[in-house]
Amino acid sequence: MQFNFQPSQAPSPFSPRIKFRSAIAQSEATFRRLLEDANYLIWSSQLDSTLTYLSPQFKVMFGYDIDAWLGRSFMPLVHPEDVSRLDAFLWEVVETGEQCIGAVFRHRRRDGRWSWVSSNFSLVRDTDGNAVGLQGVLRDISNRKSGEATKPVEDRPLRTTDLLFEQFFQKSADAMLLLEKDRLIDCNWAAVQMLRCQSKAELLALLAANLLAAKLTPEFQPDGQLSSQKAKEMMTIALCQGSYRFEWTYQRMTGEPVQLEVLFTPLEFDQRSLLHVTWRQMGDRV
Q1: Do 172 and 277 fall within a single domain?
Q2: Residue 178 is inside which H or E element, if any?
Q3: Residue 193 is part of a domain; what is its CATH number?
Q4: Which residue from 51, 77, 112, 236 puts its CA 20 to 30 A from 121's CA?
């Protein structure tokens, strides 16, 4: 028996498959560059807290050489009084699979001093969906903590400012949402209309546990990325840069897809870490 092998034709660099892979590679490279250049520390670890990655800001913020801590647990860097609280946050993420936003604790510096930090982190899963590690972003909030220590208890934000924000939020023509710890806590009427819900209560119920509710979010975005993975990347960039604008596809209650321009803006309010989200339909841009 003879086999007549014919050389396969190399795929054209202009084929959809090649262009798709190129777009994904470019997206990942851009994401990594944004993180490396950020003023935030990016970290990853195994489930037992053994560090597997630290961005260059680790040395800038705390004075340690990165190689000295890779392969070691990060727990010795945590203030003894904060270890149990951080450990509870970590295991809640492992048990529930939900992202932790705003875990506050004290981090040891090489000179022996302590810095107040806030970290957001989530699970890393392998291709089979098994939890294999943690990844997060961390920022120094020592200045904010110092301000809180010297601020009189009765010195509260102006009620006028609160009322103005509330009116802006509720009356804006742009769809707006407010999240805390990855959970929707409020939205305006424009958001309800955007997704063709019957009421604000319906939208809040759908998205209360997860902004990526399966009923309203396709599994994949148009660029081929998993919606769940891309959302985490966009949120991380927003936390690093202070805000981030990107495109996103939702699915209305009618089943109709809607292409949105999304703006993520992290906020600090009354010692709470919030995420302000603005949706604008792509066809509405001028």
Answers
A1: yes
A2: strand 175-180
A3: 3.30.450.20
A4: 112
